[in-house]
């Protein structure tokens, strides 16, 4: 059962990931433009709203979305994990407040609004977009880290470790983080989905990607108008995004289930 | 099903992954009777009890027959907190259950009354964490009684409770049985089984080794295992005592002048306490006072009876730890006041009191785990930092603490040996290899041999883990070892073994002082000095065995309904005759 899920999750995630990362290598030079929203005529996925080959756009358009989303998620955790851990393990109430309260304020601002506001002031580009998305994910992630780590930190095992004279690092990393890992892995699966959604939405709204860029999210947006004439230009990139998020979640589920079984 | 039973199990076999949890168990539950399943943890009690509810472990292969009268079966699990919703007031869940079974407010009130919750209505507005363990258990019992079950299954209802609370719990279930509801009691606590059970089934390794009416079983146990179970609960077997005494005798050999005060034939009184012996007792020691020699019961349980040994070359008898003007708080509420308390090298101090009296807080203050107190804890006359985070290596090693819940006190991801060895690495600067060797040696001496130390905590039993926890603390070579209720929650045989280990410690480690936090009179008997914590106030009572006498004698009238305690009262009553109780 678990093995089946691994394989299924792996397959579902492998296709969009491979296309996103390796696609640009096989895209080749741009061919001559043809009619908008055409089917066939040498383009086996048809053409898009300006007559470009959809297959080539698909090959080229994954990298920005996927890399931005992965980078943003990783960056978010890079900040959230230490902050949450510190807040969970400290006995100093003021330090916990100092770390968590500002994040609560940030939590209250709708993330898309923040991105649009910044984008209105200056075009962030893909790197800026990744930073922005990471930033809006930090408060959420930090709270979850703190809650999961706080639960582990209140166990007698932590007191026993301190009684043994273990260092802060060892307690924090080898026990607390490890105990919180299950929660964090589940959260990471959901968060990556959320981040993909946010990056796609931002691209869809023209932030972080040019309006005619080869980008799965932009493709969905721009080719919408021809959906009933030439569905592939919308369906293929949309399915790839859905596949990526679903596959990632399946993989995390399978990994957690296996770990849980190994423990019991 | 026969007319006169509300539930019946015939030839039940539950198998998980090829291993039989329960094999060939048959039992019959008559209405209004209490059927007790006793046995060590892991003997299949819970599996059998859950079978009555129609519940089996995941992936279990079940054969045999379980029949029960129509109607619900109530279940009171071991940890009542686990079945209450932490974010809901307890009343909400109770009313939901009432609605689901078509019961009205009067039924609810009745169920609360049956669960002995007269103050029920007010409690219903609280959240689970605002209730004590006993109150949670009563709420869960009320939940179980609401659908008007014919049978209630209670899993270890008295684990980790003090004698007074145990008595109340026993009373509660007696009242349930009196209303014609059959009670199936799963327990390794023989006191409560004695007080309640009409019928007893003794289980071992998934099989019923002996069953019969309670009186017959207590009087004349047929199976060897039953005898061991009953023996272990009573007085220590002779070999344990031998070990204890052997350890004690040499102490004070190089003493200062007045070492051996008197020679005392021991062991007159008790129920089957068949060990005589000769014991040197220090005349002028702190513990015994000057009045003379305390009557000793239960033989020389190690550090128990030797009195305070006279100071010798090792500095045994000198104060190690001193508490001055300590007031501990939780939030802003003061929970414990200790004007002065001195612990001497090589002595064993019992801290007794009801749960919630503040005795654990006292232990945690000593170990630096509870830093919210004013006052000072002095080690060799030098104040210890309040929080263990500020204690340096030597001082951290000097005062070690063994936790009540050994399972929760181990990291479930790493093998036990690695965790135990770390103490020597961190606190004594031993290199990893030597630390492992020493850890293996210590574990072996505490009875953990073979591949047990190499397993993860999940693969060890509660008793084994508690020994490992003891080893982990001992590897620091502590001068003071605080043991917090380390025997509660263990079955009688395991508890006995652990007590024997504790009793043998002083012989192994001269100069080690023990602080035993407990509400178990048997454990407290190991100590030569006892302090009683009552509602946060600490009073000291003279010699160990006598203290238990005074305590039980004092509460005697109230614990009468527990037959086991009655035996204690009787036994100690004899001592009272020997020597007046203050």
TrEMBL record, chain A:
It comes from the Bacteria. It is found in: Cell membrane. PROSITE patterns: ABC_TM1 (PS50928). The chain crosses the membrane at residues 65-90, 102-121, 127-145, 188-209, 229-252. Coiled coil: none annotated. CDD domains: TM_PBP2. Keywords: Cell membrane, Membrane, Transmembrane, Transmembrane helix, Transport. Residues 66-252 form the ABC transmembrane type-1 domain. Belongs to the binding-protein-dependent transport system permease family. This is ABC transporter permease. It comes from Streptomyces fuscus. The lineage of its organism: Bacteria, Bacillati, Actinomycetota, Actinomycetes, Kitasatosporales.
């Amino acid at each position: 059962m678990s093995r089946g899920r691994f394989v299924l999750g792996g397959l579902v995630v492998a296709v969009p990931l491979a296309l996103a990362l390796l696609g640009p290598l096989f895209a080749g030079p741009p061919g001559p433009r043809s009619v908008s929203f055409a089917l066939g005529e040498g383009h086996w996925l048809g053409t898009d709203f300006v007559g470009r080959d959809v297959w080539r756009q698909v090959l080229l358009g994954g990298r920005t979305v996927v890399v931005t989303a992965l980078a943003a998620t990783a960056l978010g955790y890079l900040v959230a994990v230490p902050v949450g851990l510190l807040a969970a393990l400290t006995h100093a109430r003021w330090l916990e407040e100092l770390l968590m309260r500002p994040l609560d304020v940030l939590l209250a601002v709708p993330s898309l609004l923040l991105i649009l506001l910044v984008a209105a002031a200056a075009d962030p580009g893909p790197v800026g977009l990744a930073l922005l998305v990471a930033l809006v994910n930090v408060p959420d992630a930090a709270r979850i880290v703190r809650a999961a780590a706080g639960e582990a930190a209140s166990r007698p095992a932590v007191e026993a470790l301190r009684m043994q004279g273990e260092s802060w690092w060892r307690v924090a990393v080898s026990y607390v983080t490890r105990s919180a890992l299950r929660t964090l892995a589940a959260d990471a699966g959901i968060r990556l989905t959320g981040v993909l959604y946010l990056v796609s939405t931002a691209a869809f709204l023209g932030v972080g990607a040019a309006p005619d860029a080869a980008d799965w999210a932009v493709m969905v947006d721009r080719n919408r108008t021809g959906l009933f004439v030439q569905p592939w230009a919308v369906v293929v990139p949309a399915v790839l995004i859905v596949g990526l998020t679903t596959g990632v979640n399946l993989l995390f589920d399978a990994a957690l289930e296996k770990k849980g079984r190994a423990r019991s | 099903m026969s007319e006169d039973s509300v539930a019946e199990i015939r030839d039940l076999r539950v198998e998980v992954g090829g291993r039989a949890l329960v094999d060939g168990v048959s039992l019959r539950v008559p209405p209004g009777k209490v059927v007790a399943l006793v046995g060590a943890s892991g003997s299949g009690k819970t599996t059998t009890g859950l079978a009555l509810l129609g519940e089996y472990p995941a992936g279990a292969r079940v054969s045999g027959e379980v029949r029960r009268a129509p109607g619900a079966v109530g279940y009171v699990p071991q940890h009542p907190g686990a079945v209450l919703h932490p974010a809901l007031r307890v009343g909400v869940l109770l009313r939901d259950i009432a609605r689901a079974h078509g019961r009205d407010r009067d039924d609810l009130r009745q169920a609360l009354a049956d669960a002995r919750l007269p103050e029920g209505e007010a409690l219903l507005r609280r959240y689970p964490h605002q209730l004590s363990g006993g109150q949670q258990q009563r709420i869960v019992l009320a939940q179980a009684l609401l659908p008007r079950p014919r049978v209630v299954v209670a899993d270890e209802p008295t684990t980790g409770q003090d004698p007074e609370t145990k008595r109340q719990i026993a009373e509660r279930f007696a009242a349930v049985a009196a209303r014609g509801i059959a009670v199936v009691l799963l327990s390794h606590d023989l006191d409560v089984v004695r007080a309640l059970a009409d019928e007893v089934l003794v289980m071992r390794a998934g099989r019923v080794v002996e069953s019969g009416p309670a009186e017959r079983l207590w009087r004349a146990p047929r199976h060897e295992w039953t005898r061991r179970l009953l023996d272990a609960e009573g007085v220590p077997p002779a070999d344990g005592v031998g070990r204890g005494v052997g350890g004690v005798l040499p102490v004070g050999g190089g003493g200062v002048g007045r070492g051996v005060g008197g020679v005392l034939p021991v062991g007159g009184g008790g129920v089957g306490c068949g060990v005589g012996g000769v014991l040197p007792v220090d005349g002028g020691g702190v513990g015994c006072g000057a009045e003379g020699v305390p009557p000793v019961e239960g033989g020389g349980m190690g550090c128990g009876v030797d009195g305070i040994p006279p100071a010798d070359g090792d500095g045994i008898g000198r104060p190690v730890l001193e508490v001055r003007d300590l007031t501990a708080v939780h939030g802003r509420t003061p929970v414990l006041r200790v004007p002065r308390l001195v612990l001497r090298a090589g002595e064993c101090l019992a801290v007794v009191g009801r749960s919630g009296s503040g005795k654990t807080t006292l232990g945690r203050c000593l170990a630096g785990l509870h830093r919210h107190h004013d006052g000072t804890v002095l080690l060799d006359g030098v104040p210890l930092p309040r929080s263990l985070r500020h204690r340096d290596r030597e001082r951290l090693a000097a005062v070690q603490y063994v936790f009540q819940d050994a399972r929760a006190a181990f990291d479930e991801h790493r093998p036990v040996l690695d965790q135990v060895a770390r103490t020597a690495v961190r606190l004594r600067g031993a290199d990893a290899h030597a630390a492992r060797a020493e850890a293996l040696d210590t574990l072996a001496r505490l009875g953990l041999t073979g591949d047990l130390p190499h397993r993860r905590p999940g693969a060890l039993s509660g008793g084994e883990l508690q020994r490992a926890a003891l080893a982990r603390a001992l590897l620091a070579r502590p001068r003071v070892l605080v043991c917090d209720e380390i025997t509660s929650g263990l079955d009688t045989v395991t508890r006995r073994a652990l007590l024997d280990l504790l009793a043998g410690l002083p012989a192994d480690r001269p100069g080690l002082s023990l602080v035993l936090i407990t509400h178990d009179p048997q454990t407290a008997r190991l100590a030569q000095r006892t302090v009683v914590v009552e509602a946060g106030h600490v009073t000291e009572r003279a010699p160990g065995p006598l203290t238990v006498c005074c305590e039980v004698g004092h509460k005697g009238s109230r614990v009468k309904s527990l037959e086991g305690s009655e035996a204690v009262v009787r036994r100690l009553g004899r001592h009272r005759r020997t020597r007046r109780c203050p």
